[in-house]
Amino acid sequence: MTDLGAYAVEVMSAYAVSLLLLAGLVWVSWRRAVKVRRALEQIEGPRADG
Amino acid sequence: MSIWEYANPKKFIATTSPVLPWVFGAAGLCLIGGLIWGFFFTPEDFRQGSTVKIIYLHVPSAMMAINAWAMMLVASLIWLVRRHHVSALAARAAAPVGVVMTLIALATGAIWGQPMWGTWWVWDPRLTSFLILFLFYLGYIALWEAIEDPDTAADLTSVLCIVGSVFAVLSRYAVNFWNQGLHQGASLSLDAQENVADVFWYPLLVCIAGFVLLFVALVILRTRTEIRARRIMALQARALREGVRA
Amino acid sequence: MIALLVRDLRLALRAGGGFGLGLVFFLIVVVLVPFGVGPEAALLTAIAPGILWVAALLAALLSLDRMFALDLEDGSLPLLATAPLPLEGVALVKALAHWITTGLPLAFAAPVLGFLLNLAPGAYVWLVGSLVIGTPALSLIGGFGAALTLGIRRGGLLMSLLVLPLYVPVLIFGAEAVRRGAAGMDAATPLILLAGITLGSVALLPFATAAAIRINLR
Questions:
Q1: Which residues of A touch B225 (CB under 8 A)?
Q2: ipTM
Q3: Could you tell me the pTM of the whole model?
Q4: N or C, which terminus of chain A has less Cβ within 10 Å?
């Protein structure tokens, strides 16, 4: 790990918060996408459009 | 009325299906690559020490926070003028991404400023403007959620986006005036754009590219979801009507 | 247009029209502040301009949802929409009625409340002036918010969420004008900028408001 010196807490927490938020956003978006796709397939059968 | 009410959404889904994985892949590559490059392989700043490494998160997210709203504005205008449903749904899809970008910009901005200013939050003009932008995003999303009819919701949120954009610009100038009025000196600019050396600039570019690609990927993904969700609603509504008639 | 204005004024001024409510709310908020921040005179003097403006802003917010909702309920809004008077004109007149019955009284009640908050002597003129200039913008922006949330059940809270961020520039320049006046400095700049916002709102917001009403009436 590079030496972050005096500001280790700040830098690490900045990275942690950002990456957590991004990961959360991707996760939530992905989950909803899968859920909706499955629900649609239930109603109208497997997708023909890929 | 045909199954897909509008041809556009079907084409959108068909076109983006093969493309989406690649966009996500490229986004991941740029993001991870750029962050690793910036975090591990760049030196510290003379004045700011290792906190300069926050630039690789703060600048791209701030840029995307603004650009997401700009994209929503364009999409809203396209909806109002040309009535392409994909456009309205894309604006709706982009809003939560913009919110997260704004939050990241706010959090990284505050954390970066903490060693300089000694507190976890300051009413720096730039941070304050992003806080206001955050509120605009929340209002936009709330309005979408509150209105039942999809077309009415699309229309009203589009008008809100347009008026909001004007006030967002107005607020930017007002906030600058407001802070300068109180403190004599200009606060330390978090935006190290005055003299970003090459050694910082290139990894920053890669990170910016990563954020842009991630934004595009997420908006495509979420728009597809919105289109499908709309379709489900339309099919259910139709089933209800036909069930009533039968 | 005059007829519409008179009608709205009369509606607002009769019992149950909410005319006095805004003023009382203004009073209550201002009275609450010293309980919240402590009675120290110097502190109150320092924050008085901002508190008075924020309280006026919130009080103006109160009566916004009646601007169009009543007409929607009794069916007169679609009639107004198809009347010879353009809907933009209707929006303007309604904002004007709101201002006359809310913003203007607030502006003249403010000095009294300024006493309660130990407002600096030089600031009173600027307080009334900034409120007179700035509250029309509050009515116009509020009208836009009311039009957006017209069809939403109990949409008052959402309307506030939409309108309050839009109020920020008005608040910034209005409060700054009073602060500068309190310090004896020249307060012309924020006042001019405030006037600019009001004039811009008069020119542009009726179009957005009318658009929102039309969308909701479909």
A1: 29, 32-33, 36-37
A2: 0.93
A3: 0.92
A4: N
